[in-house]
Structure formats: structure tokens, C-alpha cells
Design a protein that fits this description.
The protein has 364 residues and is an all-alpha fold. It has 15 helices and 2 strands. Helices cover 68% and strands 1% of the residues. The chain has a two-stranded antiparallel ribbon with strand order 1-2.
Length: 364
């Protein structure tokens, strides 16, 4: 196996765990009654199994634990040749890897509890803050470190919280969050690989494979939902991986505007978060209360089918994400064109959802 094939191998492993894992989790969920029933703001007409996030989390955690164990126990001979030469690096990254794994397990467990018992917004937020702060402070996991320690830590915690809740908000339609996460993690893997890293691209592609393996049973009509146990874990991982990737380093020829790359990749999910918060605030509804004001729902109200709305959002995410790979090393003219293109894509999505047919669709 070549070095270039290592991220692809990671994606394969993630998919091969997630695909059967999702089927197993669904069978268990149905047996124990862990089901999302229709009603209220929920659009699905039939009960759907919950807990799919467990399969996604397992598809990331198990290979990471395996690689760490093999490297630290002197069993690197079991690893692919392309990974074996990085044994020393894996050992060095072991504390960080274990910290990320612990955060995944905690957020997945909290998500399962919330999916089962419906926790309040404040307890959830406090746990999110604690997890984000622990990662940032314990492992010096910081964005824009040149701003100074305190501002950098605060910004990093806010970024992790933002993506965790943005993916949680985005998980409102069959296949939507999983597909967007697959696209974003693949693009972030390419950016980290171009930055000369191995650990981050491999982890990103584990996530890409995990979401790809989950999608066959989550695409409309969904047979299982990831729930908070999956959406918060995905948001956490995307945030952590972007922090670990260098997007703006003048010493390496990267321009400061490269720091906007994660925002460009996640422009569509962030637009959904901002628009939903604004709409709820405008009518005086609690920000954390579930409803059908997400832009995917607004697309359906304008005449799109569920699959059409989801594919449109996937495509919009892909269009904004791919040029972000060039942002750090682009000329200033090209960089501003990329930023402008992102705004135009978001503008097109806004026009599609706010204009056109107003005939409601009842399918999920």
C-alpha cells in the first residue's frame, strides 16, 4: 500500500465497520424500542429506529484505538506498510487520539441519553462546553494561536460548539447531515494531506467512510436516524480536524485568508444554523426547540421533494467546499473570487428556498 492510498484505506475501514454496524444497531434499536415516533414537527410517517450515531462513532473509534494499540504495544507488523512507518508519530499522537476518543464516547453517550430522555438545552450546552474546553486546554488544540492564548482558546471552544450544534441542526432530513459530513470530511482530509499530515487525513477519511456506510440506511426513506448521538459527534470531529489542520501559515506560503477555508467548506450548514436561529428569534420561539423552519424544510415547501432538496444541499456544499482547497495558496484575486463564489452559492440557496411554488409537500 502506498502513502497516498492510506486515507483511502482508512475510508474503506470506516465504511466496512459502519455499514454492517448500522444494520446491527437498527435491529437492536427496534428490539428494545429505541424508536423515533412520528408527530409534532417530525415529518416521517412511520416509526424509525434511532441510535445510528453509535455505528458512526464506532467506525471512527475502533480503528483509532486499534492503530494506537498496535503502535504502542510494539505490534506494528500488523499494520499496513504505509502506516507502519508512522508508528513513531502515532505514539506521539496517542494522548491526543485518546482525548478525541474519550470526547467521542462522551458526546455519543450524551446524545443517546438525549434521544431517549430529551435533555434540556442548558445541561446539553454545559456538557458540550466542558468537552470542548477539555480538548482545547488539555491538548493545546487552538485556532489562530497568534491571537494570544486566551483569545485563541475562547475562539476554539466557540468553533467546536458551533459545529457540534450546526450539524445537530442540520440533521433534520433523511441523509442530509451524513452526506454533508461525508463531503466536508473528505475535503478537510485533502487539505490536511496537502499540509503534509497523516494523522488528520486518516481520521477525516475514517469519518467520511463511516458516514458513507451509514447513508444507505439513512437516505430517504430512512430506516434509521443518527440522532444527537451521531450529529454531535460528527460536528465535534469536523471542528477538531479543522483546528489540527494549518490553513494559514505565511512561513509556508499560505495567505492569512486561508483561515477562512473551514468557514467556506461549512458555509451551507452554517447558513442553515444562522437562518433557523433568526427565524426562531423573530417569532419569539426558543432557539433550541425543534421545528420545521430549517432551509431544507423550506425547500420542500417550495415544491422540492425530499431527495431533491437533500441532493441540492449536497451539491451546494460540494461547490463551496472544493475551491476552499485553493484558498490558502491562491492569489488574492482568486481568493476573493472564491469567497465571492461562496456568498453567491448561499445566495442561490436562499433564493430557491424563499421564492417559487408555495405548495407544501408532506413527505419527509
Amino acid at each position: 500500500m502506498t502513502q497516498a492510498a492510506l486515507p483511502l484505506f482508512a475510508a474503506f475501514i470506516g465504511g466496512m465497520i459502519s455499514l454492517p454496524g448500522t444494520w446491527i444497531v437498527r435491529r437492536i434499536a427496534i428490539r428494545v424500542g429505541f424508536i423515533d415516533h412520528p408527530g409534532g414537527h417530525k415529518a416521517h410517517a412511520q416509526p424509525v429506529a434511532l441510535g445510528g450515531g453509535v455505528a458512526i462513532a464506532a467506525a471512527v473509534v475502533l480503528p483509532m484505538l486499534g492503530a494506537v494499540a498496535l503502535a504502542n504495544l510494539g505490534a506494528a507488523a500488523w499494520m499496513p506498510e504505509a502506516a507502519r512507518i508512522h508508528t513513531g508519530g502515532i505514539v506521539t499522537k496517542t494522548p491526543l487520539a485518546l482525548g478525541i476518543i474519550a470526547a467521542i464516547v462522551l458526546m455519543c453517550a450524551m446524545g443517546l441519553w438525549d434521544d431517549r430522555r430529551a435533555m434540556g438545552a442548558l445541561p446539553k450546552l454545559l456538557v458540550q462546553i466542558a468537552v470542548a474546553a477539555a480538548l482545547v486546554l488539555a491538548f493545546d488544540l487552538r485556532l489562530l494561536s497568534h491571537l494570544g492564548y486566551a483569545p485563541s482558546c475562547a475562539l476554539s471552544i466557540v468553533w467546536i460548539l458551533t459545529l457540534m450544534n450546526s450539524l445537530n441542526f442540520l440533521d433534520n432530513m433523511d441523509g442530509l447531515a451524513a452526506g454533508v459530513a461525508m463531503i466536508a470530511s473528505t475535503v478537510f482530509a485533502a487539505a490536511a494531506w496537502h499540509d503534509g499530515q497523516v494523522f488528520v487525513p486518516a481520521c477525516c477519511m475514517l469519518l467520511a467512510g463511516a458516514t458513507a456506510g451509514f447513508l444507505p440506511m439513512n437516505f430517504h426513506p430512512a430506516k434509521i436516524f443518527m440522532g444527537d448521538a451521531g450529529s454531535q459527534v460528527i460536528g465535534l470531529l469536523l471542528a477538531v480536524f479543522t483546528i489540527l489542520t494549518t490553513f494559514a501559515d505565511p512561513a509556508r506560503g499560505q495567505k492569512p485568508i486561508g483561515a477562512l477555508a473551514p468557514l467556506v467548506v461549512m458555509a451551507v450548514p452554517l447558513y442553515d444554523t444562522i437562518s433557523v436561529i433568526f427565524l426562531r428569534w423573530r417569532i419569539g420561539a426558543p432557539i433550541w426547540t425543534g421545528d420545521r423552519r430549517h432551509f431544507s424544510h423550506r425547500l420542500i415547501q417550495r415544491g422540492f421533494g425530499v431527495r431533491g432538496a437533500v441532493l441540492l444541499i449536497w451539491l451546494a456544499t460540494l461547490i463551496t467546499a472544493l475551491p476552499a482547497l485553493m484558498l490558502a495558496t491562491a492569489t488574492w484575486t482568486l481568493a476573493w473570487c472564491i469567497a465571492g463564489e461562496t456568498l453567491l452559492v448561499v445566495g442561490i440557496v436562499a433564493l430557491l428556498e424563499w421564492t417559487g411554488s408555495r405548495q407544501p409537500r408532506t413527505e419527509r
